[in-house]
Specification:
By secondary structure, the protein is α/β, with parallel strands linked by helices. It is 39% helix and 27% strand. It contains ten helices and ten strands. Strands 6-7-8-3-9-10 form a six-stranded mixed β-sheet, sandwiched between helices. Strands 2-1-4-5 form a four-stranded antiparallel β-sheet, with helices on one face. It is globular, with a radius of gyration of 17 Å. The two termini are 27 Å apart.
Length: 241
């Protein structure tokens, strides 16, 4: 299916560095419109750096074509205005603001106030816990609630591409299952394209259509999620069977 879908993002020869330290070494990958793509790999493989490179938060070279526009060399705020939303590891909520104030900040580039209000109510329908805590300071929410808030705030942008960095990290299994179920619903109902970085390979491959395995800053394996799941080295190293 992925081969039939047009590319929303295509990386070609992508390098990324922190100062003199290079982390990504000429990687190629594609993200098909309307699909969920997963990036797997051990700690230090370059997964988070890949998301930061797309957002132009690190020094990059090579090409990142987003719907026909080059992202390399753009300011991060311009990347956001093109429709790329980033849910970082650690969630990044504004602790002193309320849940609702955080959500409204996610829509700060939008001018369609009536649609913003409708999206806010849709968020509360999808995440009832956030509705219950709409006037509560974000810093007092549980870890799972903060992750729900971080994802919802990014969706308030109405992104064309949603970048998710380790959404399961530190959360109880039941909360993780709920968040991943809602992410699947958002992808199916709203056709939001997603790029998911996740150390829990089994979870990621259950959700994704396509996957890439990074090893020390290079693409070691690429294919459909089912193909990656069947690979013997992936099964041994990441799936535990």
């Amino acid at each position: 299916m992925a081969e039939a879908m047009p590319d929303l993002l295509r990386a070609t020869g992508l390098n990324a560095s922190y100062g003199p330290t290079q982390v990504l070494f000429g990687i190629d990958f594609r993200i098909a419109a309307g699909e969920i793509t997963a990036i797997l790999g051990a700690n230090g493989a370059g997964k988070t750096t890949t998301l930061r490179a797309i957002c132009q938060m690190v020094r990059t070279a090579g090409s990142l074509m987003f719907d026909g526009r080059e992202l390399v060399g753009q300011a991060t705020e311009n990347v956001v205005r093109l429709g790329v939303a980033h849910v970082p590891d650690g969630r990044g909520t504004f602790a002193e603001l309320t849940t609702e104030e955080n959500l409204r900040l996610g829509a700060y580039t939008r001018r369609d106030r009536a649609e913003v209000a409708r999206d806010l109510e849709r968020t509360y329908a999808r995440f009832p816990r956030l509705a219950e805590r709409r006037h509560q300071q974000a810093g007092t929410l549980s870890g799972g609630e903060q992750q729900m808030l971080a994802i919802s705030r990014a969706l308030m942008l109405r992104p064309r591409l949603l970048l998710l960095d380790e959404p399961s990290f530190g959360l109880a299994p039941l909360i993780v299952a709920e968040i991943f179920r809602i992410m699947r619903t958002i992808n199916q109902e709203d056709a939001v394209t997603m790029l998911l970085v996740e150390q829990n390979a089994s979870l990621a491959l259950d959700l994704a259509h396509r996957a890439y395995l990074l090893e020390t800053g290079s693409v070691a394996l690429a294919g459909s999620a089912e193909e990656i799941r069947r690979d013997e080295s992936v099964r041994r190293a990441y799936l535990g069977y």
